[in-house]
Design brief:
The complex is a heterodimer of chains A (about 45) and B (about 325).
Chain A lengths: L2 H8 L2 H14 L19
Chain B lengths: L1 H39 L15 H11 L10 H17 L18 H22 L3 H32 L4 H6 L11 H14 L11 H4 L9 H25 L18 H22 L5 H29 L9
Helix pairs in contact in B: 1-9, 1-10, 2-9, 3-4, 3-9, 4-5, 5-7, 5-11, 7-9, 9-10
The chains are: A mainly alpha (about 45), B mainly alpha (about 325).
Chain lengths: ~45, ~325
Protein backbone atom coordinates (compact mmCIF):
# COMPACT_ATOMS: atom_id res chain seq x y z
CA UNK A 1 0.00 0.00 0.00
CA UNK A 2 1.36 3.42 -0.91
CA UNK A 3 1.00 6.49 1.26
CA UNK A 4 -2.06 8.07 -0.37
CA UNK A 5 -3.89 4.73 -0.19
CA UNK A 6 -3.20 4.50 3.56
CA UNK A 7 -4.32 8.10 4.01
CA UNK A 8 -7.55 7.38 2.15
CA UNK A 9 -8.19 4.26 4.22
CA UNK A 10 -7.58 5.85 7.61
CA UNK A 11 -9.68 8.95 7.02
CA UNK A 12 -12.42 7.05 5.13
CA UNK A 13 -12.12 9.59 2.29
CA UNK A 14 -13.75 7.45 -0.38
CA UNK A 15 -16.46 6.29 2.00
CA UNK A 16 -17.41 9.88 2.84
CA UNK A 17 -17.38 10.80 -0.86
CA UNK A 18 -19.78 7.92 -1.47
CA UNK A 19 -21.99 9.03 1.41
CA UNK A 20 -22.17 12.59 0.03
CA UNK A 21 -22.94 11.28 -3.44
CA UNK A 22 -25.76 9.13 -2.04
CA UNK A 23 -27.24 12.16 -0.28
CA UNK A 24 -27.00 14.16 -3.52
CA UNK A 25 -28.71 11.39 -5.49
CA UNK A 26 -31.53 11.23 -2.94
CA UNK A 27 -32.84 14.63 -3.99
CA UNK A 28 -32.84 13.95 -7.71
CA UNK A 29 -35.99 12.88 -9.51
CA UNK A 30 -36.53 9.13 -9.48
CA UNK A 31 -36.16 7.23 -12.75
CA UNK A 32 -39.13 4.92 -12.14
CA UNK A 33 -42.78 5.84 -12.63
CA UNK A 34 -45.39 5.54 -9.93
CA UNK A 35 -47.08 2.73 -11.86
CA UNK A 36 -50.73 2.27 -10.98
CA UNK A 37 -51.18 6.04 -10.80
CA UNK A 38 -48.89 7.10 -13.64
CA UNK A 39 -48.56 5.21 -16.90
CA UNK A 40 -45.56 5.04 -19.21
CA UNK A 41 -45.83 4.98 -23.01
CA UNK A 42 -46.08 1.17 -23.22
CA UNK A 43 -48.12 0.44 -20.07
CA UNK A 44 -51.50 -1.25 -20.59
CA UNK A 45 -54.52 0.98 -20.12
CA UNK B 1 -52.27 -7.59 48.66
CA UNK B 2 -54.17 -4.62 47.21
CA UNK B 3 -51.06 -2.40 47.37
CA UNK B 4 -49.09 -5.09 45.63
CA UNK B 5 -51.60 -5.20 42.79
CA UNK B 6 -51.54 -1.42 42.56
CA UNK B 7 -47.76 -1.34 42.21
CA UNK B 8 -47.92 -4.15 39.66
CA UNK B 9 -50.54 -2.23 37.68
CA UNK B 10 -48.40 0.90 37.70
CA UNK B 11 -45.36 -1.00 36.49
CA UNK B 12 -47.31 -2.68 33.71
CA UNK B 13 -48.67 0.72 32.69
CA UNK B 14 -45.14 2.12 32.56
CA UNK B 15 -43.87 -0.83 30.54
CA UNK B 16 -46.71 -0.54 28.02
CA UNK B 17 -46.05 3.18 27.81
CA UNK B 18 -42.54 2.30 26.64
CA UNK B 19 -43.16 -0.84 24.57
CA UNK B 20 -45.98 0.39 22.38
CA UNK B 21 -44.10 3.49 21.16
CA UNK B 22 -41.06 1.31 20.51
CA UNK B 23 -43.00 -1.20 18.44
CA UNK B 24 -44.67 1.61 16.49
CA UNK B 25 -41.35 3.34 15.92
CA UNK B 26 -39.81 0.05 14.79
CA UNK B 27 -42.55 -0.13 12.15
CA UNK B 28 -41.86 3.45 11.09
CA UNK B 29 -38.13 2.85 11.02
CA UNK B 30 -38.53 -0.10 8.65
CA UNK B 31 -40.44 2.25 6.36
CA UNK B 32 -37.70 4.91 6.65
CA UNK B 33 -35.06 2.31 5.88
CA UNK B 34 -36.81 1.12 2.73
CA UNK B 35 -37.64 4.66 1.64
CA UNK B 36 -34.07 5.92 1.99
CA UNK B 37 -32.80 2.84 0.22
CA UNK B 38 -35.23 3.48 -2.62
CA UNK B 39 -34.46 7.18 -2.89
CA UNK B 40 -30.71 6.61 -3.10
CA UNK B 41 -31.30 4.14 -5.91
CA UNK B 42 -33.69 6.63 -7.59
CA UNK B 43 -36.73 4.47 -6.97
CA UNK B 44 -39.76 5.66 -5.06
CA UNK B 45 -39.85 3.08 -2.29
CA UNK B 46 -43.08 2.16 -0.49
CA UNK B 47 -45.49 5.09 -0.99
CA UNK B 48 -48.97 3.65 -1.41
CA UNK B 49 -50.31 2.46 1.99
CA UNK B 50 -51.30 5.47 4.11
CA UNK B 51 -49.66 8.92 4.00
CA UNK B 52 -46.27 8.63 2.21
CA UNK B 53 -46.60 4.87 2.58
CA UNK B 54 -46.06 5.13 6.34
CA UNK B 55 -48.40 2.19 7.08
CA UNK B 56 -46.59 -0.19 4.73
CA UNK B 57 -44.96 -2.03 7.63
CA UNK B 58 -48.29 -2.42 9.43
CA UNK B 59 -49.75 -3.93 6.26
CA UNK B 60 -46.77 -6.27 6.02
CA UNK B 61 -47.15 -7.29 9.66
CA UNK B 62 -50.84 -8.00 9.09
CA UNK B 63 -49.91 -10.16 6.12
CA UNK B 64 -47.40 -12.11 8.25
CA UNK B 65 -49.96 -12.70 10.98
CA UNK B 66 -52.31 -14.42 8.55
CA UNK B 67 -49.63 -16.59 6.95
CA UNK B 68 -49.15 -20.20 7.94
CA UNK B 69 -46.26 -21.05 10.26
CA UNK B 70 -44.36 -23.94 8.73
CA UNK B 71 -42.18 -26.04 11.05
CA UNK B 72 -39.77 -28.34 9.19
CA UNK B 73 -40.22 -32.03 10.04
CA UNK B 74 -36.58 -32.46 11.06
CA UNK B 75 -36.40 -29.28 13.13
CA UNK B 76 -36.01 -29.26 16.89
CA UNK B 77 -39.48 -27.89 17.57
CA UNK B 78 -39.00 -26.33 21.01
CA UNK B 79 -35.84 -24.44 20.15
CA UNK B 80 -37.16 -23.58 16.69
CA UNK B 81 -40.17 -21.85 18.21
CA UNK B 82 -38.17 -20.34 21.07
CA UNK B 83 -35.57 -18.64 18.84
CA UNK B 84 -37.64 -15.74 17.44
CA UNK B 85 -39.19 -15.21 20.87
CA UNK B 86 -35.74 -14.93 22.43
CA UNK B 87 -34.55 -12.51 19.75
CA UNK B 88 -37.51 -10.21 20.12
CA UNK B 89 -37.68 -10.33 23.92
CA UNK B 90 -33.99 -9.54 24.31
CA UNK B 91 -34.26 -6.68 21.85
CA UNK B 92 -37.15 -5.13 23.79
CA UNK B 93 -35.94 -5.88 27.33
CA UNK B 94 -32.86 -3.72 26.87
CA UNK B 95 -35.00 -0.60 26.44
CA UNK B 96 -35.84 -0.65 30.15
CA UNK B 97 -32.69 1.28 31.03
CA UNK B 98 -32.55 3.74 28.11
CA UNK B 99 -33.23 7.22 29.52
CA UNK B 100 -35.33 9.35 27.17
CA UNK B 101 -34.99 12.35 29.49
CA UNK B 102 -33.91 13.17 33.05
CA UNK B 103 -36.83 11.23 34.57
CA UNK B 104 -38.37 9.33 31.67
CA UNK B 105 -36.76 5.93 32.28
CA UNK B 106 -38.29 2.70 33.58
CA UNK B 107 -35.44 1.49 35.77
CA UNK B 108 -32.61 3.85 36.58
CA UNK B 109 -30.06 1.23 37.66
CA UNK B 110 -26.47 2.03 38.55
CA UNK B 111 -24.99 -0.55 36.19
CA UNK B 112 -27.13 0.51 33.23
CA UNK B 113 -24.43 0.32 30.60
CA UNK B 114 -23.33 -3.11 31.83
CA UNK B 115 -26.91 -4.36 31.61
CA UNK B 116 -27.23 -2.94 28.11
CA UNK B 117 -24.01 -4.60 27.03
CA UNK B 118 -25.02 -7.94 28.56
CA UNK B 119 -28.45 -7.98 26.96
CA UNK B 120 -27.18 -6.96 23.54
CA UNK B 121 -24.56 -9.71 23.75
CA UNK B 122 -27.24 -12.27 24.59
CA UNK B 123 -28.99 -11.32 21.34
CA UNK B 124 -26.72 -13.68 19.43
CA UNK B 125 -28.42 -16.65 21.11
CA UNK B 126 -31.66 -16.08 19.26
CA UNK B 127 -29.82 -16.32 15.96
CA UNK B 128 -27.73 -19.35 16.94
CA UNK B 129 -30.79 -21.17 18.25
CA UNK B 130 -32.78 -20.39 15.11
CA UNK B 131 -29.98 -21.51 12.80
CA UNK B 132 -29.19 -24.67 14.69
CA UNK B 133 -32.76 -25.79 15.34
CA UNK B 134 -33.73 -25.45 11.67
CA UNK B 135 -31.56 -28.52 10.99
CA UNK B 136 -30.70 -27.33 7.51
CA UNK B 137 -27.46 -26.30 5.77
CA UNK B 138 -27.90 -22.61 5.06
CA UNK B 139 -29.40 -21.59 8.40
CA UNK B 140 -26.61 -23.49 10.15
CA UNK B 141 -23.90 -21.69 8.15
CA UNK B 142 -25.63 -18.37 8.82
CA UNK B 143 -25.75 -19.10 12.55
CA UNK B 144 -22.06 -20.00 12.69
CA UNK B 145 -21.15 -16.84 10.81
CA UNK B 146 -23.25 -14.59 12.99
CA UNK B 147 -21.92 -16.16 16.20
CA UNK B 148 -18.32 -15.50 15.19
CA UNK B 149 -19.11 -12.04 13.86
CA UNK B 150 -21.11 -10.76 16.81
CA UNK B 151 -18.62 -12.07 19.35
CA UNK B 152 -15.68 -10.42 17.54
CA UNK B 153 -17.27 -7.01 17.33
CA UNK B 154 -18.59 -7.10 20.88
CA UNK B 155 -14.99 -7.10 22.08
CA UNK B 156 -14.20 -3.79 20.43
CA UNK B 157 -17.56 -2.30 21.48
CA UNK B 158 -16.72 -3.26 25.07
CA UNK B 159 -13.40 -1.45 24.90
CA UNK B 160 -15.02 1.61 23.35
CA UNK B 161 -17.53 1.66 26.19
CA UNK B 162 -14.63 1.53 28.67
CA UNK B 163 -13.19 4.57 26.89
CA UNK B 164 -16.37 6.52 27.60
CA UNK B 165 -16.68 5.18 31.13
CA UNK B 166 -13.16 6.38 31.92
CA UNK B 167 -14.26 9.91 31.11
CA UNK B 168 -17.51 9.64 33.08
CA UNK B 169 -16.60 7.61 36.15
CA UNK B 170 -20.04 6.01 36.45
CA UNK B 171 -21.93 3.14 34.82
CA UNK B 172 -25.27 4.89 35.20
CA UNK B 173 -26.67 5.95 31.82
CA UNK B 174 -28.05 9.19 33.26
CA UNK B 175 -24.64 10.11 34.66
CA UNK B 176 -23.09 9.33 31.29
CA UNK B 177 -25.44 11.78 29.59
CA UNK B 178 -25.12 14.47 32.27
CA UNK B 179 -21.32 14.24 32.12
CA UNK B 180 -21.58 15.46 28.52
CA UNK B 181 -23.23 18.73 29.48
CA UNK B 182 -20.22 20.81 28.44
CA UNK B 183 -18.76 18.67 25.67
CA UNK B 184 -20.28 15.75 23.81
CA UNK B 185 -17.90 12.82 23.77
CA UNK B 186 -18.18 12.66 19.99
CA UNK B 187 -15.60 15.49 19.87
CA UNK B 188 -12.77 14.18 22.08
CA UNK B 189 -13.48 10.53 21.23
CA UNK B 190 -14.32 11.01 17.55
CA UNK B 191 -12.28 8.02 16.26
CA UNK B 192 -14.00 5.86 18.86
CA UNK B 193 -17.39 7.09 17.66
CA UNK B 194 -16.56 5.95 14.12
CA UNK B 195 -15.32 2.57 15.36
CA UNK B 196 -18.41 2.22 17.56
CA UNK B 197 -20.66 3.03 14.63
CA UNK B 198 -19.02 0.47 12.34
CA UNK B 199 -19.03 -2.15 15.10
CA UNK B 200 -22.72 -1.43 15.66
CA UNK B 201 -23.32 -2.16 11.98
CA UNK B 202 -21.56 -5.50 12.40
CA UNK B 203 -23.30 -6.23 15.68
CA UNK B 204 -26.76 -5.82 14.18
CA UNK B 205 -25.91 -7.72 10.95
CA UNK B 206 -26.47 -4.68 8.77
CA UNK B 207 -24.81 -4.22 5.39
CA UNK B 208 -21.86 -4.21 4.70
CA UNK B 209 -21.62 -6.88 7.39
CA UNK B 210 -24.85 -8.77 6.65
CA UNK B 211 -23.04 -12.07 6.07
CA UNK B 212 -25.28 -14.11 8.40
CA UNK B 213 -28.25 -13.41 6.17
CA UNK B 214 -26.52 -12.87 2.83
CA UNK B 215 -29.33 -13.41 0.34
CA UNK B 216 -27.07 -14.25 -2.55
CA UNK B 217 -25.01 -16.99 -0.94
CA UNK B 218 -26.98 -18.28 2.06
CA UNK B 219 -30.54 -17.74 0.77
CA UNK B 220 -31.47 -15.83 3.94
CA UNK B 221 -29.10 -17.33 6.48
CA UNK B 222 -30.60 -18.28 9.82
CA UNK B 223 -34.14 -17.28 8.80
CA UNK B 224 -34.45 -19.51 5.75
CA UNK B 225 -36.84 -21.98 7.38
CA UNK B 226 -38.96 -19.40 9.16
CA UNK B 227 -42.30 -18.21 7.90
CA UNK B 228 -45.28 -16.19 8.97
CA UNK B 229 -45.28 -14.51 12.35
CA UNK B 230 -42.06 -16.22 13.45
CA UNK B 231 -40.17 -14.59 10.61
CA UNK B 232 -41.82 -11.27 11.43
CA UNK B 233 -40.59 -11.56 15.02
CA UNK B 234 -37.01 -12.07 13.88
CA UNK B 235 -37.41 -9.07 11.67
CA UNK B 236 -38.91 -6.85 14.38
CA UNK B 237 -36.26 -7.97 16.84
CA UNK B 238 -33.54 -7.10 14.36
CA UNK B 239 -34.87 -3.58 13.84
CA UNK B 240 -35.47 -3.09 17.58
CA UNK B 241 -31.80 -4.03 18.05
CA UNK B 242 -30.73 -1.51 15.43
CA UNK B 243 -32.72 1.20 17.19
CA UNK B 244 -31.13 0.13 20.47
CA UNK B 245 -27.65 0.45 19.01
CA UNK B 246 -28.56 3.92 17.72
CA UNK B 247 -29.85 4.85 21.18
CA UNK B 248 -26.61 3.57 22.71
CA UNK B 249 -24.58 5.65 20.27
CA UNK B 250 -26.69 8.70 21.08
CA UNK B 251 -26.22 8.23 24.83
CA UNK B 252 -22.52 7.41 24.78
CA UNK B 253 -21.35 9.97 22.23
CA UNK B 254 -24.06 12.43 21.19
CA UNK B 255 -25.13 13.58 24.65
CA UNK B 256 -28.45 11.71 24.92
CA UNK B 257 -31.32 14.09 25.57
CA UNK B 258 -29.15 17.23 25.89
CA UNK B 259 -29.77 19.99 23.32
CA UNK B 260 -27.02 20.91 20.86
CA UNK B 261 -26.34 24.25 22.53
CA UNK B 262 -27.91 25.29 25.80
CA UNK B 263 -29.25 28.72 24.74
CA UNK B 264 -32.73 30.17 24.90
CA UNK B 265 -34.83 29.17 21.87
CA UNK B 266 -33.14 25.81 21.35
CA UNK B 267 -33.39 24.46 24.90
CA UNK B 268 -37.19 24.94 24.84
CA UNK B 269 -37.49 21.78 22.74
CA UNK B 270 -38.35 18.97 25.19
CA UNK B 271 -35.66 16.45 26.07
CA UNK B 272 -37.23 13.27 24.59
CA UNK B 273 -37.46 14.98 21.19
CA UNK B 274 -33.72 15.64 21.20
CA UNK B 275 -33.12 12.01 22.05
CA UNK B 276 -35.43 10.86 19.25
CA UNK B 277 -33.77 13.23 16.77
CA UNK B 278 -30.34 11.87 17.62
CA UNK B 279 -31.53 8.26 17.30
CA UNK B 280 -33.12 9.12 13.95
CA UNK B 281 -29.94 10.80 12.74
CA UNK B 282 -27.90 7.70 13.54
CA UNK B 283 -30.52 5.47 11.95
CA UNK B 284 -30.50 7.63 8.82
CA UNK B 285 -26.76 6.96 8.55
CA UNK B 286 -27.45 3.22 9.00
CA UNK B 287 -29.97 3.36 6.15
CA UNK B 288 -27.68 5.38 3.86
CA UNK B 289 -24.81 2.99 4.43
CA UNK B 290 -27.06 0.06 3.55
CA UNK B 291 -27.64 1.70 0.19
CA UNK B 292 -24.06 2.52 -0.76
CA UNK B 293 -21.77 -0.30 0.34
CA UNK B 294 -21.11 -3.77 -1.08
CA UNK B 295 -20.93 -6.77 1.26
CA UNK B 296 -17.62 -7.64 2.95
CA UNK B 297 -15.91 -10.95 2.45
CA UNK B 298 -15.84 -13.03 5.61
CA UNK B 299 -12.06 -12.97 6.13
CA UNK B 300 -12.03 -9.20 5.56
CA UNK B 301 -14.70 -8.85 8.22
CA UNK B 302 -12.72 -10.86 10.73
CA UNK B 303 -9.52 -8.98 9.90
CA UNK B 304 -11.25 -5.65 10.40
CA UNK B 305 -12.63 -6.72 13.77
CA UNK B 306 -9.60 -8.40 15.30
CA UNK B 307 -6.59 -6.82 13.61
CA UNK B 308 -7.74 -3.23 13.19
CA UNK B 309 -10.56 -2.26 15.53
CA UNK B 310 -9.41 -4.17 18.60
CA UNK B 311 -5.78 -2.86 18.65
CA UNK B 312 -6.92 0.62 17.64
CA UNK B 313 -9.49 0.92 20.42
CA UNK B 314 -7.01 -0.53 22.92
CA UNK B 315 -4.39 2.06 21.94
CA UNK B 316 -6.98 4.81 22.16
CA UNK B 317 -7.97 3.52 25.60
CA UNK B 318 -4.38 3.86 26.79
CA UNK B 319 -4.22 7.35 25.25
CA UNK B 320 -7.45 8.43 26.94
CA UNK B 321 -6.36 7.04 30.29
CA UNK B 322 -2.94 8.70 30.11
CA UNK B 323 -4.44 12.00 28.99
CA UNK B 324 -6.93 12.01 31.86
CA UNK B 325 -4.24 10.99 34.36
CA UNK B 326 -1.63 13.47 33.13
CA UNK B 327 -3.97 16.47 33.16
CA UNK B 328 -5.54 15.28 36.43
CA UNK B 329 -9.01 15.11 34.87
CA UNK B 330 -9.95 11.63 36.10
CA UNK B 331 -13.51 11.61 37.49
CA UNK B 332 -13.36 11.63 41.27
CA UNK B 333 -16.98 11.89 42.41
CA UNK B 334 -18.20 8.45 43.27
CA UNK B 335 -15.30 6.50 44.70
Amino acid sequence: MNLSRIFKTIFLIEFIQGLLMAIKEMFKKSKTINYPFEKGPISLE
Amino acid sequence: MFEYLQVLGQEIYKILFLLIPILVSVAMIVWLDRRVWGLVQKRKGPNVVGPFGLFQTLADALKYIFKEIIIPASANKVIFILAPIVTMTLALVAWAVIPMSEDLVISDINVGILYLFAVSSLGVYGIIMGGWASNSKYPFLGAIRSAAQMVSYEVSIGIIIINVLLCVGSLNLKDIVLAQKDLWYVIPLFPMFIVFFISALAETNRPPFDLPEAEAELVAGYQTEYSGMMYAMFWLGEYANILLMCAMGAILFLGGWLPIIDIYPINLIPAPIWMILKILFLFFLFALIKAIVPRYRYDQLMRLGWKIFLPFSLIYLVLTASFLFFFDKLPKGNF
